[in-house]
Amino acid sequence: MKDEEPEGMPNTSEQTSSEELYPNIVKVRNDDKPLYFAESESKKFKLREGSEASWISSEGFSEKELREHIEPWLTSLFQSEHLSLLAGSGLTHAVHYLAAGKKAAGMERLPLTTCQDKINAAAEVSANQAGRKTGNVEDQLRVANELLRGLEILQDDEAATLRGELEAGMQTFAESILKSEAGIATAPDTQREQAFNTLVTFLMSFASRIGTRDRLSIFTTNYDRLIEAGAELAGVHLLDRFLGNLMPIFRSSRLDLDMHYNPPGIRGEPRYLEGVARFTKLHGSVDWVQTGKDIRRIGLSFGAETVDPYLKAPGLGEVTAHKLMIYPNAAKDRETADYPYVELFRDLASAVCRPNSTLVTYGYSFGDEHINRVIRDMLTIPSTHLVVISFDDPLKRIMETYKQIGRPSQISMLIGPALADLATLTENYLPKAAIDKATFRMSELLKQRFATQKSTPKAKDQADEDGSDQL
Asked: pLDDT tens across 34-83, in order?
């Protein structure tokens, strides 16, 4: 039996034209299907023909109406018992665009000479299996590392050549990541401050949670340190698996560490320290290196030109760019290579696959099947919810994943420049930071007062009616 097209999805024949005319997609609250819309000449938004929603009039809707429909819903979800944020490369591109006026540097393929055609062909197959149309440098590196391992087992002379090329490739890869960081760090002061202020507002919308809720968990597939830089500016303390100060070491025994404080004059009642979040880099980081059997984080400056000077510090031994822990890493020992990523993905699964959990993705294109599998498992729990925020969906992976999961009531979507542009999103649709109880007390007080004011005239009218009946 042929699979039917889900309600709200355009037909294949009209998909291209529809997406060009209606690039924005919203599905929140009681929307039973994705709503495609675009900005009209009257500066109002209009729905795609054939679509309708109870909160939209036939004349279209404004940004104010859109905000009233979206912001309360997100505010409610952000106060779920468990909240997680998954940031993809879209976040780096968004901040880089605000700072430098262009997207961040991309990850181009490496010019390998050893079995290049076979490596590229295998990378394409790997990409197709993961749901991507074309392979990227990650697929290429993954296949090249597997080939290197085989050549070393066979004691083939080409192993040394391929290892040298991979070492140079990993350094080029790391430098492209640092180039993106440098594009932000060296941007004009006004634009850089605006970009970082927007990033801080974005992070604080998630990190501002009341003390009775679980800590925010931040996950990212990015190798750069943009989130770390934004958290530092925001005063958010990130808890990860690294312990130590001079050269932190990755530990498996996280032991659910947290930060508390004792209020003055109160003993025995420690409270959660505000502005703390858990942080996991699922694919590793440009400042992680393998030293022997340990994974350490080096003091690599944000936006440095190259990693070489930082790898010559005492204690790093014979560490080279070949042993940078950016996925897929080029470590020789497969057991050691798998080691940090097994722990990191365990953190992802344990954080999101819980009742009353909300996962928000920003700039993630759903191109990593190992992450998608965790998300699908999460949505088998009825009380969980997925919020997808993305500037676009050029490869159609987001909508394909939405179709495959088949749980529309548990998925909200904000896709398109009118919704997911980082500045627009933080200004209009994300909840504002509110971490002290005074805000909630004020809200309750206003509700009570307005309720009293509204009920008073009704009570008076009722009394008058009763009096007239008696007459």
From this structure: 999 988 766 788 888 877 888 887 778 888 999 999 999 999 999 899 99
Radius of gyration of the chain (CA): 26
- Better-predicted residue by pLDDT, 226 or 330: 226
For 306-347, the pLDDT digits (tens) are 888 888 877 776 776 667 777 655 444 444 457 788 889 999
Q: Over the stretch 399-427, which tens digit does the pLDDT of each residue have?
A: 999 999 999 999 999 999 999 999 999 99
Tokens encoding 211:
């003390």
Least confident of 10-14, 112-116, 365-369, 389-393: 10-14
Residues 367 and 346: their CA atoms lie apart, in Å, by: 19
pLDDT, residue 115, reads: 84
Q: Is the pTM of this model over 0.70?
A: yes
Give the confidence band of 377 by pLDDT, cuts at 50, 70, 90.
very high
Q: What amino acid is encoded at 26 in this protein? A: V
